[in-house]
Sequence to fold (296 residues):
Amino acid sequence: MILNASGCLDALAAPDVARGLDAYVTKTVTPLPREGNAPARIAETEGAMLNSIGLANPGIDVFAGETLSRLLELGVPLWVSVGGFRASDYAEVCGRLEAAPVDVLELNVSCPNVTAPDAVVAEIVAAARAATTKPLYAKLSPHLPDLPSAAAAAAEAGADGLTLVNTLRGLALDERTLHPVLSTAAGGLSGPALRPVALAAVHACYRATALPIVGVGGVSSGRHALELVAAGAAAVAVGTALFADPAAAARIRAELAAELAAHGFADLDAARGIAHAGPGRSLSELTKTAANQQVY
Fold:
């Protein structure tokens, strides 16, 4: 299953690309409109990209009243990324979308600067769970000091799945002035440099929970997708690669099928979690675990 990473594809500007996905993930929606951060918002670095968009979006009223109907016309399953600054913000957006024909709500949870991140993750997921019956995926930050513990807290609070990972914090300086390129100085790092971090996160959280995982971070080839699946991902999201290659999702799907065949795997489920095989864990146990982790 191939998705886009939230914020890396405008489906209404590139509908054919969106229709080539197994599901489309929207930009993050918050209760109130947000203009986002001032330019510059994007900076390229060696092996990565930095962004500081600031959750720019029209707010839930415009999204639910105008944007949603246009996205549904694409005819692909729809995941809505939900954001906010307190648990009640997430609950408000989820509640507004409870009756909408949306397949999954992805909670954009990123709390690297709080003292008790596990508790905050649990609070946000629990508030969203109380507001909706829809499947909830918690998108977690690799900055969390104990990511598997946070994943377990999300599961206990009612999450149905995980998206791993969100961006890392990074800084780029102008070559001439040596001043920060981004208006906010630091921003979120994505692209190839993030891939080992995503792999480690998926690997650790696959062991910590029974939740299905969407692996995201630096995927630009079928081999990259296969590695995330081997680490435990049930689906893969393509992000920064879409900026350079809008056809990346279709290409990666084809390359992934070729990689599976080359390694002798009958399908994606046969490869899922294979990186965990070893002393004390049989392939039959891995298969049983994978069978319980189906993406919506």
